[in-house]
Write a structure and sequence with these properties.
By secondary structure, the protein is α/β, with parallel strands linked by helices. The protein has one domain (57-333). It has helices at 27-96, 131-138, 140-151, 153-158, 181-186, 205-212, 217-221, 240-265, 271-278, 282-291, and strands at residues 106-113, 116-124, 129-130, 225-226, 233-234, 292-293, 299-306, 313-321, 327-333. Strands 1-2-7-8-9 form a five-stranded antiparallel sheet, with helices on one face. A two-stranded parallel ribbon has the order 3-4. Strand 1 (106-113) and strand 2 (116-124) form a beta hairpin. Helix 2 (131-138) packs antiparallel against helix 3 (140-151), helix 3 (140-151) packs across helix 8 and helix 8 (240-265) packs across helix 10. The N and C termini lie far apart (117 Å).
Length: 334
């Protein structure tokens, strides 16, 4: 017997559509999840790489800054300790060469350690025009004139004196007291408090840097000016303009020039002999003896530590000896 396969089908009605269910494609969702995950991983890795690079650069900058600070301190201590001997040797060499012009009160040099360059300026502060002494003897206007005379046009445009104390005005008129020989031995120069304690009280530093167009404008303009030092000008090492600016407030400009010319023609003469022979007025001679000297006890050093990358590190340090012979250091960061 032959059997026939039985076909079963859903009953249909005329005009009725048959709906066949379809499977949703899961592969598209998986691809989107993979792409999103990849983007998240790449973003995270990129952020991590930037952070690592930034921290690496910060570590390198910190290392360079440490080198700059360490090098600055080392140079500062070594140079200031030998400053007196170095300038004395230069002075002796100038005398051996019969040089009539004084040696510069500053020594410029450069030292390279690793990737850091140290430019430094060693100076004899007592061979510069002492602004505090000038101010207390002659007042604010004469001090401005002295700065313009010694420092030049760039300093003239930016000079802005902000004295901390009023001028004592120790002028010739204030010293017209006739003293006996015993009284002269006991007489003491009155204490003169510092009117200018930093360059910010002498110059508008922003204007100075703009006028010169260089961050090294201040060291360049103050090679013959000081707010520190012993208060006396080393007559043998100072420049002609510094000597004239200080002595002219006592003996007028003509007398100051004669005094300077006499010294330049005979540099071996001592200051005492020079004043005795050239300044006949006893009061003027006494005042100049207080303002001038033949020795230096105060020195300074500018150090500019720089590298190809990172910020420069500039410092200014002054070493001075007080009346009791104690050496002190004042350090300024710029």
């Amino acid at each position: 017997m032959k059997t026939e396969p039985i076909h079963r089908s859903m009953p249909t009605h005329p005009g009725t559509a048959v709906m066949v269910p379809r499977r949703k494609p899961a592969s598209g969702y998986i691809l989107m999840i993979v792409i999103a995950t990849s983007i998240l991983v790449i973003t995270s890795l990129s952020t991590l790489a930037r952070q690592s690079l930034r921290r690496g650069l910060q570590a390198a900058d910190a290392e360079r800054m440490l080198q700059k600070r360490w090098g600055t301190r080392t140079i500062q201590r070594a140079m200031l300790a030998e400053a007196s001997r170095v300038f004395k040797q230069r002075e002796e060499q100038a005398k051996e060469q019969n040089s009539k012009a004084p040696a510069s009160p500053v020594i410029r040099s450069k030292l390279v350690l690793g990737n850091v360059t140290f430019d430094f300026l060693l100076a004899d502060e007592d061979a510069k025009l002492p602004l505090n002494t000038l101010y207390h003897h002659a007042g604010k206007k004469k001090t401005e004139d002295g700065i313009n005379r010694v420092a030049g046009s760039a300093a003239k445009l930016s000079t802005r004196l902000i004295p901390a104390v009023p001028a004592m005005l120790i002028t010739r008129e204030n010293r017209k007291v006739v003293l006996t020989e015993d009284a002269e031995e006991d007489a003491e120069e009155p204490d003169t408090p510092d009117a200018f304690r930093s360059w910010g009280e002498v110059f508008d530093l922003a204007t100075l840097n703009t006028a010169v167009g260089d961050q090294a404008a201040l060291p360049a303009c103050t090679t013959d000016l000081t707010c520190w030092g012993s208060g006396q000008l080393n007559f043998g090492r100072a420049s002609d303009e510094a000597i004239l600016a200080l002595t002219s407030i006592v003996v007028q400009d003509g007398g100051a020039r004669r005094l300077l010319q006499r010294y330049r023609t005979n540099p071996t003469a001592t200051l005492a002999i020079l004043l005795q022979s050239e300044v006949s007025n006893h009061g003027q001679r006494s005042q100049l003896e207080v303002m001038l000297s033949e020795t230096s006890t105060s020195f300074s050093i500018w150090i500019d530590a720089s590298s190809r990358t990172g910020h420069s590190f500039r410092t200014f340090t002054v070493m001075k000896r007080d009346a009791e012979g104690v050496t002190q250091q004042n350090r300024f960061s710029l």
